[in-house]
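pasting for the record
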Amino acid sequence: MSCRMIKLSGLTVLALFVATAGWGQTSTPSQQPSQGGSSGQGAPPSQTPPSGQLPSAQPVGPSGQLPGAGQPVVAPQVNAQEETDYKAFYDSRGGGDVQKEIQLGEDFVKNYPTSRYVSVVYAVLAGVYMNQGEEDKMFSCAQKSIDARPDNVDALSLMVWAGARRINPQAPDAAEKFAKYENYAHQAIALIAAMAKPANVDDAAFNAARNDKLSMCHSGLGLMDFMRQRYADAITEMTQAVQLADHPDQVDFFILGRADEYTNHFDDALAAFGKCTAIAGGIQDRCTSAIDDTKKRALEQPAPSH
């Protein structure tokens, strides 16, 4: 899954942007802590955490549905050491010492299993483990992040993108996994659509972060459609995935090209395969071969009229 590593630099960016956009909007003043808010996540002093929650700061139930507006939410209490340890982990992100970041994160979730920051920490750890090639740990942390906060879009989008690539469509549990990741994808897309940009955040940066997560969701959906031979749906989803991505995924172009080829949209297939070959990665040879295959098929069977 290394082809998408470039995406992970923005794994917590969107949540960083929205973390303070509307915390405590439905809480009474006495219920709001001085840092963070009623969402169950908060910021260390002078910092904003990568929370991944909606700006309304309302928790999402197991079904993925937001509770009714106006329902007060009480933030869990935190202690000074917890705040200090979270800030240490937060400040370690992207500092170059990956093992230190992992150790601080793992220590935090072990020492503070009910912390309002725990979903944040697990989501960040998931991205780190993915970049390290430790997929089992990545999936474990991402799932724990979602279990702690079902509205964590960082973890949801990562699980959709990575989870789709792990499904064996012939396995007995394939239908269950398809349903699970599709639910996560639609949940994340709805949550992202509801996010409001904080006034002090640059429009372009905020939209780029939103689009990056949406791209991951559509990529996962498109791949799952392709696996089940729903090629028209795969084209729709993968087209959105590559259009939304700042750095489109090589695999997405390959799947898009195959779906176009299998529906006799040969010109579109050649365009997708051409873009695939232009991206450095492990499947350039396959994309080049696919171009030759598509040209042969186009000669044998004309494309449908538009």
